[in-house]
Amino acid sequence: MPDMLCSLINLPPVRPLLLELEAKGITIRRANPWESSAVREYVEQAFGKAWSDEIAVAFARQPVSCFLAVRDRQIIGFAAYECTRRDYFGPTGVDENLRGLGVGKALFLASLLGLLELGYTYAIIGGAGPVDFYRKCVGAIPVPFENGTGIYPLQKDPRLYAE
After folding, report:
1. Between these two residues, 22 and 161, which has the higher pLDDT value?
2. Shortest CA distance to 56 belongs to which of 46, 43, 69?
């Protein structure tokens, strides 16, 4: 899975999507600090321990750098930013049976707005699984690498070995 790069300038508006989801009983909102355990549990059960570990970083930030999709007081999706590295989007996930409703797109755009608020003009989508989704949403492009991969498979920190 390649890393991808996207511009944060001229993002599509998220408000119409939020209103459409609200009509379906789904709310997109920033996670609260006191929800850390519940969010990490959800992420671990639905998407694995590694993503749950990454999400912990979101709750160390002020404001929390994680958005939630909630329906009937239940978490049905999440998206985080500045967890893996600075200016990185991800991890993110939506319950499998609720994909295709715009939940992932709304979470993605809310997170990109969070990165924009931090002063970034571009964002990195780390280990982008659904490449076509990110391309369609915001025109993201794959980042070319000599070795064909991003940071995830690295076993050593290249900054320490630089001359």
Report:
1. 22
2. 43
Condensed to tens digits (0 to 9), the pLDDT of residues 68-102 reads 999 999 999 999 999 989 999 999 999 999 999 99
Tell me the one-letter amino acid at 23: A
Reading the block at residue 7, the tokens are: 């511009």
Q: Is residue 124 part of a domain?
A: yes
* pTM flag (> 0.90): yes
Distance (Å, rounded) from C-alpha 141 to C-alpha 3? Answer: 9
Nearest to 104 by CA among 80, 140, 74: 80
Does the residue 54 lie in any domain? Answer: yes
Which runs of consecutive H residues, i.e. helices, occur in the chain? 15-23, 36-47, 49-58, 103-117, 131-138, 158-161
For residues 81 and 92, what is the distance between their CA atoms, to the nearest angstrom?
Answer: 9
CATH at 127: 3.40.630.30
Total structural domains within the chain: 1
Q: What's the domain range around 109?
A: 4-150
List 94's β-bridge partners, or say none.
77
pLDDT band at 149 (very low <50, low <70, confident <90, very high): low
